[in-house]
Design goal:
By secondary structure, the chain is of the alpha+beta class. It has a single domain (about 5-155), classed as SMI1/KNR4-like. It is about 25% helix and about 20% strand. It contains five helices and nine strands. The chain has helices at about 15-25, 30-40, 80-90, 130-140, 145-155, and strands spanning about 5, 45, 50, 60, 60-65, 95-100, 110, 120, 140-145. The protein has a five-stranded antiparallel sheet. Strands 1-2 form a two-stranded antiparallel sheet. A two-stranded antiparallel ribbon has the order 3-4.
């Protein structure tokens, strides 16, 4: 991997990933699986996304792990699948987005189940005057067409304009 993660959790196996895929009813893209088989969560060495479109860069504070999270005593909501279920159940995120990371404000970096793209989901911009459906649409910003492209495009803070 060209952007290794630090402070990762215990490794997961392909069987662990497949059991979570069955629960979610979704097969993760191979580049996502390959990354997580080496780095289960953690913080990327290069953790900043700069979209170069006038929006502020955002930093990945943490990438959520699968199955294990010693910092939260394996609290299910701290794991990718548990967070997904909790956030969908509460209508915080639409069911097509699987949150795999957070920025420091609690916004999500997500895998889009529809096309495998990476989406930033700004929970802190929720508009209480708009419907849930409209918020679900407005709060999404596509960052990259794939997880591999996303990870490769992350930069160090010193590289920001």
């Amino acid at each position: 991997m060209n952007n290794p993660c630090q402070n990762c959790e215990k490794n997961v196996s392909r069987l662990d990933m497949e059991s979570i895929e069955k629960i979610l009813g979704y097969s993760f893209p191979e580049d996502f699986v390959s990354h997580y088989l080496i780095f289960n969560g953690g913080v990327p060495a290069r953790a900043w996304w700069d979209s170069h479109d006038g929006c502020e860069p955002v930093e990945i504070a943490i990438m959520k792990p699968f199955k294990y999270n010693k910092q939260s005593s394996d609290n299910p909501v701290s794991l990718i699948d548990g967070c997904y279920h909790a956030m969908v159940e509460r209508n915080v995120i639409p069911p097509n987005l699987i949150p795999f990371g957070n920025d420091w404000g609690g916004n999500y970096f997500c895998l889009n189940k529809n096309d495998g793209s990476i989406v930033f989901y700004a929970t802190d911009s929720f508009d209480s005057d708009s419907s849930i459906e409209l918020n679900h649409q407005k709060l999404q910003k596509k960052l990259a067409v794939s997880f591999k492209e996303f990870m490769a495009a992350l930069v160090e803070e010193s590289d920001l304009d």
